[in-house]
Amino acid sequence: MSDSEGLLDTQGLQASLFFETPEEIYARVFRALKPRTIIPGLRVEFCRFANADSFIQLKEGRLHVRISDLLEGAPAPVTEALAYILLGKLYRKAVPRVYAHRYRLYLNRRDMRRQAHLVRQIRGRKFISGPQGEHRNLDEICERLNASFFDGLMGRPQLGWSRGASRSMLGHFDPSHNAIIVSRIFDRLQAPLLALEYVMFHEMLHLRYPVDPNGARRRVHTREFREAEKKFPQLKEAKEILRRL
After folding, report:
1. pLDDT digit string (tens) for 103-149?
2. At a CB cut-off of 8 Å and minimum separation 6, what does 45 contact?
3. How far is it, in rounded angstroms, from Cα 198 to Cα 57?
4. Cα distance between the two ends of the chain
5. Taking the CB of the first residue and of the last residue of the chain, which one, N or C, has fewer CB atoms within 10 A?
6. pTM assigned to the model
């Protein structure tokens, strides 16, 4: 085969990748991961999810793939990467890291982050109980911390308690709904106030120092975030209390 013929073959393979349907891409990836297995019936569906989640299920001998419609216009190599990720998880197959890197890189693009943020705002439902708990008021704590650490200049986010007394998710900041949610485990008289104040302060720092996208990585706790966190008095004691929780 001449060099020119080899180049044409390579270009042909690349062209076929870019003109495959999603079902054809998933079928090809299935053959690559399970070469001795007959491909089951396959359906790929784009759904109006509130985020970029995707799911795969093998049921009654058929593969059903449900992908966020945020990814409906994704380039074929990104669809291929997601196919490797989903099928690899389903069949417990090792998948080269390049696919996870490619997929994260695409989702971390500025235009994709902006679209995902808008979709979460429009479609997402957020349970926000309000700041008043049974024993504690998050408004009072937020105002006190705002005055002490942010010169009283931080805009107040929505505040609420979680539905249950979670020990694994003690608090989180949701930028799409500008809300800080704190676990009800702290809405008890026996719960140390110091720990609650630290959790609230930590989540307020997420509001002050947003996630920093960097290629395929997302830096949640930036250097500025860590430096600001050190200003919390009794930081070590507060973290120790949380570890015991």
Report:
1. 999 998 888 888 888 887 777 666 778 899 999 999 999 999 999 99
2. 64, 65, 66, 67
3. 41
4. 68
5. N
6. 0.56
